[in-house]
Each structure stands twice: as C-alpha cells, then as structure tokens.
Amino acid sequence: MSDVDGGIADLRPLVRAQEQKAWYFYDWANSAFATTIAGVLFGPYLIAIAEEAAVDDRVSVLGIAVAPGALPAYVITFSTLISALVLPLLGAVADRTARKKDMLAGFAWTGSFFAALLFFMTGDNWQLGAITFVLANLCFGASAVFNDAILPLISDESERDRVSTRGWAYGYAGGGLLLALNFVLVSFHDTFGLTEGMAVRISLLSAAVWWAAFTFIPWRGLQNHPPVHVEQVEGGVLQRSFGQLLQTLKDMRNYPVALTFLLAYLFFNDGIQTVISQASVYGVEELGFPQGTMLGVYLLVQFVAVGGALLFGRIAAVRGAKSTILGGLVVWMLIVTAALFIPEESLLPLLALGVAIGIVLGGTQALARSYFSLLIPRGKEAEYFSFYHAMERGTSWFGTLVFGLVYTFTDSYRPAIFALIIFFVVGGLLLMRVDTARGIRDAGNDVPAVI
C-alpha cells in the first residue's frame, strides 16, 4: 500500500489540503462576475441603456411592454429559469466523468467570454447586454455545479463546513479586491479622462478577465477524481446521462431529509439571491444614491462578508450548521424589514444595512453548501448538486419576478424588497423540520461530532 493510501506516513490529509487551497481560488475567480457584474453594475447600466431606447417609458420584450426599471429583474428571471432546466442534466453528465475540474474550467472560460461582450453594450443596444448576460449567467451556474461537486471529493465530513466557509471567504475577498479597483475607476472617472459609461464598461470587462485568469489556479491545482458508484445504464453518453438522471430522480425518494432541505433551500436562497441581485438597483433608483456610492457600499459588504463567512464557520463548529443557518435567516428577515423604512439619501442607515448583509451573506450560503453535502450519497455529488443549483435558480426567477411585479404595481422598490421576507419565513420553517442525523445516516456518510 502506498503512503497516500494509508502506509507508514498517511499523506491523504496533506493532499486534500493542497487541493483545498487550489479549490478556494475558484470562489476568488467567479466572484468577480457575481459582484462587479451581476451584483452592482449590470442592473443599473442595463436600465440606463434601456431608457435610451424606451418609448413612453417602455421597451418591447418579445412583444410585451416592460418598464426599463423592471428589465434587470426579468432578464435574471429568464436566465435562472433556463439554468433550472439545464443543470440537472449537466449533473448527470458530471457524475459519469473524472474530468470535473476540466468541465469547471471550460464553463468558466466560456462564461467569461460572454461576460466580456458586455463591454459592447452601448447606446440603446440593451438587447446585446440582456442576451450575453443570460449566456454568461448560465455558464456561471454550470461551473458552480462542478465546483460544489468537487467539495466532497477534497474534504471529509468533519472538514466540510470549514472548507466551504473558507472558500466563500476567498470569494468575497477576491470579488471585493476587484470591486475596490472598479469603485475608484467609476467614482473618479473624470480623473482618468473617461466618461462614466466607459468606466462602467471597462469594469464589466475587468470582471470577465479576472474570472478567466484566476480559474487557471484550480484548473492546475485540482486532481481529476474517478467517478464511483455510478449506475450502469445503456446507450451513448447523452442517453446514459438521461438514464442516470431518471434513476436519480427515483432514488431521491430514499433521501427524504435531503429533499426537505432542498425545499427549504428553494425558498430562503431565493430571498438571498433576489436581495443580492436587486440591492444596487434599490439603492440607485429608490434611495437616490449615485452609482459610485453603491459601489462603495457593495465593497463594504464584500469585505465584511469575508469575516462573516469565517465567523459562521466557527459558530457552526460549536452550534452546528443547521442552527447557525436558522440564526442567519432571522437576520435576513430583519434586513428586508429595515430596508422598507430606510430614509432616502441617508448614508449611515445604508452602511449599517450593508454591514448586516455582509455578516450573514457568505455564512448562510457557505453553510448551506456544506450542510447539503452531508445529506447526499457518495458518487452522486454532481447529480445532487445540480438539483441543488436547479433549486437555487429554478426559484430565483420567482423571487425576481415577485420583486418586478410588486415594483410594477406599486411603482416603489420598498414594498418589493420587503415582499421577500416570505421566502425567509417559509425557508426557515421548512429547515426546522430537517432531521440532520437521520439525513446523514440515510446517505451513508459519517456523522460529524457537531451537527
């Protein structure tokens, strides 16, 4: 038996630690898209471009008149709905291949290419921005399936919360660093001899380049792990993947705890994703802050989230992931309630809200990822994480749709943001019904000391 396989010197923890360090950098890489593009700049810039093309304050989307202010929410709705249909099949493919790191990198580089095309969204050409964002966001979700499926392969059950939260911390640090540079560029664009529009376009391009460049670190540092416990089904690759998908759908009935958690995640993550995607629009359009100020607030959220993710990892080590997530959902309820009453152009309350979001943002999402990994059987990581992301994206369209509809009917973003509280309430109630110990045993995983 070799040393790595458990000889005199068991090197498996060292090998896992090396892969974990490389894995952290994909969160560092892809957070550039999640923050600079999806989180801050895309929504307000798309609105500004669409307003140039608007007739009677409406643009035509497939023959339907849409207010420019609601356009980002509807674009994200369409993008996430497409992702929800594609990702489960992708997960079936992923579990049949050893080349998970190559698939991760391939989707990341394709997504960064489409994200780079946002640089050419100028004048009144909002359609280009909408289409390329949809494609980039689809690749972003696909790469996340492979990234999350790798987590159980490079960490054991007792390490899972620590590794997941550290990955999120890297993500917020990387995304925050680029956002800081873009904050300077957009806020002081005159100093650099640029218009604000050009500064925004350069920032969008920088996020695409950052995403592509830092993906090389996990691509080089991770190993390709051979698939295990894969069902034998007939046919070609695509047919076998459909066969495994159908088999897994039937098999999921054997893991009712995992299904209950997925349902809870379906709701509370929808609330989180909608707050993230619409926060910049809310600050600019409802509270009256300039784009540069919102970049600064988002930057604050990013760096607070680094500590927040690590803090949640420490709390989970003592209280367990489920209890820690539930505590985070209570804070999310307080956040959307406070957003309903925050005064216009009042900076201190906005900063306080940003700090609160930063504390719970990374922690709740990171722990949800590691918690779910304990409830799924070995050999089906990508398959189950594809459903995990399908739940994330399959219902995120509902959150943004609710947000857009409430805004359309009330002409105010305040009730739209407060309406999201229902997602945190329902998600929390469902999570309380999850029996953690039973779920881990059903999946055949080892039960950590603290759950």
What does this entry look like structurally?
α2 packs antiparallel against α13 (381-410) and α4 runs antiparallel to α13. With 451 residues, this protein is an all-alpha fold. It is built from 16 helices and 2 strands. It has a single domain (18-222, 236-443), classed as Growth Hormone, Chain: A (Up-down Bundle), CATH 1.20.1250.20. It has a two-stranded antiparallel sheet with strand order 1-2. The mean pLDDT is 85. 75% of the residues lie in helices and 1% in strands. It is globular, with a radius of gyration of 21 Å. InterPro entries: Atg22-like, ATG22/LtaA_families, MFS_dom, MFS_trans_sf. It is found in: Cell membrane. The chain crosses the membrane at residues 28-50, 70-91, 103-120, 126-146, 167-186, 198-217, 255-276, 296-317, 324-342, 348-372, 393-410, 416-434. Its main location: membrane. Residues 257-451 form the Major facilitator superfamily (MFS) profile domain.
Summarize the structure.
With 451 residues, this protein is mostly helical. The protein has a two-stranded antiparallel sheet with strand order 1-2. It contains 16 helices and 2 strands.
